Amino acid sequence: MKSTIVLIVLVCLVPMQAIGHPHFFKEDRFFFDRGKSEDQSLTVSHMTVPFNEIATASLPEGEDWHLGFAQLKLGMAIELGGQKVEPGTYTLKIKREGDSKWSLFLQSDEEDDKKKTIELNSRMKSDLPAQDHLNISIRPIGNKEVTEIALIVRFGPNGIEAPVNRVE
């Protein structure tokens, strides 16, 4: 009993910084229509890992990175970054092409010998407010005149946007 009380007191007295930096699982879900039917959903999930200017500079040119083990789950066919993508589960990755140039791509979650890579046309944004952790979301971008849905990947001072469109 005494050891339990001592343990509780010690845990309460240890500052949060000493415990370690928290990383958590993040999931963002988007529905084209109000019905919240799984066959109409797009879901992106990832770990909130550090991916700031120091981390991005350490990734060699030509190397791809797992984006916090990001997955994209599609309940329907969509057009993503100008490419038709069928329903299923995909791994979302990024490749460093140069100092400020990155490319975004998907890999199907099939057996290793059947993996399909889909390169996405995307818009690179630089000189954004610095961000210490990876953040991936699906959200509207634009203004009142022109609004579109985009898959957005933010890291360090960079961002990549890939437009999302419904395939009829």
Largest sheet: 7 strands, antiparallel
Number of helices: 3
How many domains? The number is 1
Strand content: over 45%
Overall 3D geometry? globular
Count the strands?
13
Question: Helix/strand/pairing class, anyone?
Answer: mainly beta
Would you mind describing this structure in some detail?
With 168 residues, this protein is mainly beta. It has one domain. Helices cover 13% and strands 48% of the residues. It has helices spanning 2-13, 16-19, 53-58; strands spanning 25-31, 41-47, 64-65, 71-74, 78-80, 83-85, 88-96, 102-108, 117-120, 123-125, 131-142, 147-156, 158-166. It is globular and about 40 Å long. The relative contact order is 0.18. The model is unreliable at 4-19 (pLDDT under 50).
Quick structural gist:
The protein has 168 residues and is mostly beta strands. It contains three helices and 13 strands.
Key attributes of the depicted protein:
mainly beta, six-stranded antiparallel beta sheet, 168 residues, seven-stranded antiparallel beta sheet, 13 strands
Fold blueprint:
Elements: H1 2-13, H2 16-19, E1 25-31, E2 41-47, H3 53-58, E3 64-65, E4 71-74, E5 78-80, E6 83-85, E7 88-96, E8 102-108, E9 117-120, E10 123-125, E11 131-142, E12 147-156, E13 158-166
Antiparallel strand pairs: 1-2, 2-4, 3-7, 4-7, 5-6, 5-13, 7-8, 8-9, 10-13, 11-12, 12-13
